[in-house]
Amino acid sequence: ISELGDYVEYDDEDINGLLGISMDGRDVCVIYSKDADDQGEIGIIRAASEADAKEVLHKSQEYLEQMRVERRAFVESYLPRELSKLSSAEARRFGTYVIYTVLESEKSTLVFDKIEDTLKAQ
After folding, report:
1. Is 78 exposed, middle or buried (0-12, 13-18, 19+ CB in 10 A)?
2. Rounded to whole angstroms, what are the CA distances from 57 to 6, 13, 96?
3. pTM of structure
């Protein structure tokens, strides 16, 4: 999604365990901003089943809550303009896909809308 800026994908080794679960049997893409002053992150996970996707959604929500707690003091002190991204971070499930965003709410909405349109077109 070009509107976000310069984002790069995590290596597979870095992704495994990122949400506290094994990514074996799941297709995963997690991207983050290359700009150290940008706390943006997007995760797209295709689970093996809808039941598995529910577990991944739960783990994604836990990951985002942990991120809010652990990064809050740093972001408040050094990158206060990025605080809205932590506050609006969310995860959603679309069938067997789980998508999470750590973005401003309007960019998050754009990402979710584009993903939903893409999935509907399949």
Report:
1. exposed
2. 26, 21, 10
3. 0.85
